[in-house]
C-alpha cells in the first residue's frame, strides 16, 4: 500500500459489512475496491462524479458477483465447460498483499493497493491448478485508474495451465443512444448473440440501438468511449490484452437479470479489455502480466479531432 500526507489508503467496511479499500488522491479523485472479487466498485473524478456504473440492485453478498464496477473474469471469460460463468476470481475473497514482489517499472506516482488471490482446496477441486494472482489497483495523480494483473503458475506437478481473462468494466454513461465507441472499426469480432460467428465491423464508430454482445479480436491498445450528453470521453489503454468485449444487455435481458434495474441499460456500457480468442498458457514458474489504464477527459479535449485514428494515436 502507498501513502503520504495528501493521499490515502483507507480500509473500511462497505455494503453488508464487506471489507473495502478506499484510495484517495491529492486533487480529490478516489476509487473503491472490495476484497470480495478484488472488485473496483467506484472511480470518481476530482469533481466527485462517479465514472463507473454499479446497479442499484447489485447484490453485495458472496457468492453472487457484484453487478457493475470492474469484475475480474478469471480463469475463464464466459460460460464454457464446468467452471462458473466468467470464472471464480470475481466471487472469492482476496487478501491484501502486504509484501508483493516488486512491480517493474516501479512507478511511485499515485496511490495503490496490492491484492492477492490463491486457490483454496475447494477451488482446486473445480480448477486443479495452483496459482498466485496479484492485482495492483492504482489511482494516478491525475485521477487515472490503473489495474495491473500478474498471474503466476505455482503448480508443483509440472503441469501448465490455460485460461482466458477480462477486465469486465462497466462505464457509467448518460444515455446509451448518445454514446459511440471509437477504435474498433474495421476489426473482426465474434458475435455472442450469434453463436460466436465471426464478422467484420463496418468503418463507422460503433453506436447503440439494441442489444450488443461482441468480442472484438486483436484490437489496438486504445479505445475511446464518447458520451456526447456528458461531454466526456473515456479512454481505455490496454497492454497485453488483445481482445475487447462490448456489451449492453438492452431492455429484454435487463428485465431478465435479477440484480439489474429494468432501465439501467440506458446508463451503462461494458467495454472489456480481454484475452479470449487465444487462451493464455503458463508453464510452472511462468508469470503473465497485463494492464488496463482508464482515463476520463472532457470531450472538448478531443474536439475537432474525433477522427478515431487521431484520438487513438494521441498519447
Ligand atoms: C459479458 C458477456 O461480458 O458479460 C455477456 O459478453 C454476459 O454474454 C455479460 O451476459 C454478463 O455476464 P454476467 O455473468 O456478469 O451476468
UniProtKB/TrEMBL annotation:
It comes from the Eukaryota. Belongs to the glucose-6-phosphate 1-epimerase family. CDD domains: D-hex-6-P-epi_like (cd09020). Keywords: Isomerase. InterPro entries: Aldose_1/G6P_1-epimerase, G6P_1-epimerase, Gal_mutarotase_sf_dom, GH-type_carb-bd. The active site is at 168, 272. GO terms for biological process: carbohydrate metabolic process. PANTHER family: APOSPORY-ASSOCIATED PROTEIN C-RELATED, GLUCOSE-6-PHOSPHATE 1-EPIMERASE. This is glucose-6-phosphate 1-epimerase. One of its GO terms (molecular function) is carbohydrate binding. GO terms for cellular component: cytoplasm. It comes from Helianthus annuus. It catalyses: alpha-D-glucose 6-phosphate = beta-D-glucose 6-phosphate. Its EC number is 5.1.3.15. It is an enzyme of class 5 (isomerase).
